[in-house]
TrEMBL record, chains A, B:
The lineage of its organism: Bacteria, Pseudomonadati, Bacteroidota, Flavobacteriia, Flavobacteriales. The keyword Oxidoreductase applies. The keyword Oxidoreductase applies. One of its GO terms (molecular function) is oxidoreductase activity, acting on the CH-CH group of donors, NAD or NADP as acceptor. Residues 15-329 form the Enoyl reductase (ER) domain. SUPFAM superfamilies: GroES-like, NAD(P)-binding Rossmann-fold domains. It holds the Pfam family ADH_N_2. Keywords: Oxidoreductase. This is Enoyl reductase (ER) domain-containing protein. It comes from Frigoriflavimonas asaccharolytica. InterPro entries: ADH-like_C, ADH_N_2, ER, GroES-like_sf, MDR_fam, NAD(P)-bd_dom_sf. SMART domains: PKS_ER (SM00829).
Amino acid sequence: MNKVITLNSRPVGKPQLSDFKFEEVEMPQMKDGEVLLKTKFVSVDPYLRGRMSDAKSYVPPFELQKAMSSGVVAEVTESKNDQFKVGDFVSGSLEWKELQSVNPEHLTKVDDQIAPLSNYLGILGMTGLTAYLGLTEIGKPQKGETILVSGAAGAVGSVVGQIGKILGCRVVGIAGTDEKVEFLKSEFGYDDAINYNTTENMTKAIAEACPNGVDVYYDNVGGDISDAAHTNINRFGRVIVCGAISTYNETEVPTGPRVEGFLIKKSVLMQGFIVSNYAEKFPEAVKQLAQWLAEGKLKSSETIVEGFDQIPQAFIDLFSGKNTGKMIVKI
Amino acid sequence: MNKVITLNSRPVGKPQLSDFKFEEVEMPQMKDGEVLLKTKFVSVDPYLRGRMSDAKSYVPPFELQKAMSSGVVAEVTESKNDQFKVGDFVSGSLEWKELQSVNPEHLTKVDDQIAPLSNYLGILGMTGLTAYLGLTEIGKPQKGETILVSGAAGAVGSVVGQIGKILGCRVVGIAGTDEKVEFLKSEFGYDDAINYNTTENMTKAIAEACPNGVDVYYDNVGGDISDAAHTNINRFGRVIVCGAISTYNETEVPTGPRVEGFLIKKSVLMQGFIVSNYAEKFPEAVKQLAQWLAEGKLKSSETIVEGFDQIPQAFIDLFSGKNTGKMIVKI
C-alpha cells in the first residue's frame, strides 16, 4: 500500500498534528506520458500555513481530506514518458505521498552530481530564489549599505545574509536563540546578530548593530520585530515583505503601529514579495546561486528530519524556530 | 511696521490658534543681491503639522518663536538683484511675513499672464506636482485600471482624479461631505465617489464603487479609510502613501491592522511619496500640467481665504476638511 498525508482539519491558531491525517491508499495507476515517482525529500515551508486556511490568497487553499503538497524531490521509478527515464531525479510541487504517478511537464530534472538532492529544495530551489530575487529585485542593495534580516537563521534568511555579504553590504541578522546568533556570525558571515528572545529593547539593539541605519530590511517575520526594524530604517529604505511567520497563527487580524508615518517621512518602499512572480528570472538566478555555491561563496544550511511520518511535525516545528536554515524531510 | 506669524507653542493634538503668535517687527533691511518681497498668496498644507512638532522628519521642525514658512507667491517691490525687477512675481518657500527681503536664488519667477498667481501654489505648484508625480512615478496607472483616491476633494486629490481620467482610468474618490462627493463627480470627472462620514461599511462601499478592485490607491488620509481601501486592493496593486492627515493630530502612535498580510498575499507595493525627491522632473511635469490646464482638460480648484491674519485659521481648517481643492490665503 501507498501512504499519503491529507489535510484533516483547518487549523485554528497553531497547527496541530491532528490537523493532518495519515492514510493508506492504493498504488497509483500510471497513464501514458506519466512517470512513477518515489518521494526522496519533502520541503516544509511557513507559507503552507496560509494554504491550510480557507482564505483567498495568491495560491488556492488546500482542500479538506485531500493530499497536502509542497516542494518535493523524487526519483523516477517507472516511466511512460520519453523525456524521463528510470533513475532520473526531479523537483517540483508534488503531493505528500510516498509514491505518485504524474505528468512531469511541470517538473524540473535535477542532478545529484552537481549538488546534494536536498539543495534543490533549499539553496538551489525556492529558498535560494526567494532570497536572491527578493533582495536584488526589491531591495536593490548598493555596496556599503546595511541590510537587516529578520528570521535570519531560517531557510531564506540564512541565504539573504550571505548574498548581502557577496554584494558588499553590512549584514545584521535577527534570530531567536544564542546558538543561532553565533551560527549567523560564524557560518553565514553576518557582521552582527541579535537574539530577540533575550533583548529587551529591540529598537535600541538594532540601532547599535546598524550604526548607519538600515537601508534594506528583508522581513520574514513581521510583528514587533518589524516595528523595531521600521523605526531604524533610513531615508529611501526598502522593505522586502517576504514573510510574516510571527502572525500566521493569529486568529484575529494582527494590529500594530501604522506604517504610513515612516513611509512618508523617510520615502520608504515596502513591497510584498512572492517568488513565483519572478519565474522568468529563475534560470539566470539558479545559475548565479549554483556558481556561488561551487565557488564556496555560498553555503547551504539545512535541518534534515528523517521519515515520511515526520512531515507534519517538521512543519509545526517551523513556528517554534526548531530549524536552522532550510527544514527538509528525508524519506 | 511689518507683520509676522511665529510658532508660539508646539501643538498637542489638533493645532490651536494659540499655537501661533502675531508679532510686529521692524521693516526688513535689504542686502546686496536681495529682493524685497510683498506677500500676495500663502499656501497652507497638512504637512506643516509635522514641522510644528519636534520630531525628526524629512524637513527640520519649525523653531519656537521663529517665523512659520510655507509656499508663498510674492511681488518684488524693490530689487538689489539684476535678475529680478520691481513688479516681478515669484514663488517659493518663504516666511509668513507681509514683507521680507531675501536672496532669490531658490525662488521661481511666475507669470500672471499664463495662469492666476494662486495657481502657482496649487495646480501648477507643489499640489499639482504631488498629484502628477505621485500618480505617475509610483502608481504607474495603466489605461483601464481603477484608481481610488482618499482626500479626493482636497488639494492633491482633486488633481489626482482629473489626471487619472486623462490617463484613461476609472477613478473613484473618497470625501467627507455630500457636497464634495457631488463636486468630485460634476467638476473633477470622478466616475464615482463615497462620503465616508455617512457610509457605514467603507470596505463594502469601495468594493461596489470599484467592481474590478483597486489597482492604484492614492492615499492622502491614512487611518480607517485606508484599511478599507487596502482590503479592496488588487494583486500587484500600488499604494502611493502621500499623506495621513487623519493621524497627524494623534498624540499616541496610531495603530491599525498590520499591512504585511495583504502586501504579501497580493504582491502589493506601498511607497511613501515626497514631491521634493523628484525635483529633477519638475520642469517637465509643470509643462505637462500647464498644457492640460490650457487645453481645459484640467481644472484648478481653490478655496481662497482673505487676510494675513487668517493664515493660522485656514491651516487649522484643513483638519476639518473646510477646503475643497487647494487652501490658499490671499493677502
